Amino acid sequence: MTSKELFTVKGVGERLLFTCLGPTWIESWQAIQVYISENKTFLHNAIIIIDLRDLEIRSADLFNARDFCYEHQITISAIYAKNHETNQAAALLGIPTQHSEKETATGLKLSNQAMDKAVLIHRTLRSGTLVDVNCDIVVFGDVHSGAVIRSDKNIIIWGKLMGEAHAGRSGDASAVICALELIPAGLKIAGIPFDSTKRKPKEPEVAILEENAVKIISWMKITY
């Protein structure tokens, strides 16, 4: 099979959709790797979605694919998958999954219809990464400057928040942003911004919305 028979690529909103057409993931991915290597300028800082159709992929292979993309300044924002094992592999890596392109009509917002009540990401989010979900999100790692997290619910970071975070995006004033070290480049709750310049956190903190203003308090003072 030629490379054109192994995958296709097209724009979906501000993202690129790669659809695997080969009989196996390995064959399609090898062709995609060649395409990425030959189009570095065009794909620089691209955000992509991979449609695996009904192909099965192991978490180790998906991990390697994600790292290859990072090396080329490309972010895998989601995968479309019908295979149960493939969906499980993506979940282990914190990559949102969907069943088809129809679930993201505009290509601008990830849906968590196929997710649980929270997205768990077990890695550091580097510059250029965009996470956009409508559920709670927990990051076990740092969020570097240049990375962006948007959620309709809460954002909890077991590490440093140095990038941008927007919780309660749909207007939920009860949403919070927690981090072990809160020094964000930008922070919003329910659309209300917080001036985080010259912050020097000394302990884990939580950003909350109170009296239409974002306030930072000690994580230890939060009661549920």
Describe this structure as you would to a colleague.
The chain has 224 residues and is an alpha/beta fold. It folds into two domains: 1-109, 2-Layer Sandwich (Transcription Regulator spoIIAA), CATH 3.30.750.24; 116-224, Pectate Lyase C-like (3 Solenoid). The chain contains five helices and 16 strands. The chain has helices spanning 3-6, 25-38, 40-43, 59-71, 84-92, and strands at residues 7-12, 15-20, 47-51, 75-80, 97-98, 118-121, 130-133, 136-139, 148-151, 155-161, 164-167, 177-182, 186-189, 192-194, 205-210, 213-218. Strands 6-8-10-12-15-16 form a six-stranded mixed β-sheet, with no helix packed on it. Strands 1-2-3-4-5 form a five-stranded mixed β-sheet. It is elongated and about 60 Å long.
The overall number of domains is 2
Average pLDDT score: 84
Can you list the strand order of the major beta sheet? 6-8-10-12-15-16
CATH architect. name of the largest domain: 2-Layer Sandwich
CATH T-level fold name of the largest domain: Transcription Regulator spoIIAA
Biggest beta sheet attributes: 6 strands, mixed
SSE pattern: HEEHHEHEHEEEEEEEEEEEE
Taken as a percent bin, the fraction of beta residues is 25-35%
- Rg over CA atoms: 18 Å
Q: What is the β-strand count? A: 16
CATH superfamily of the largest domain: STAS domain
Structural class: alpha/beta
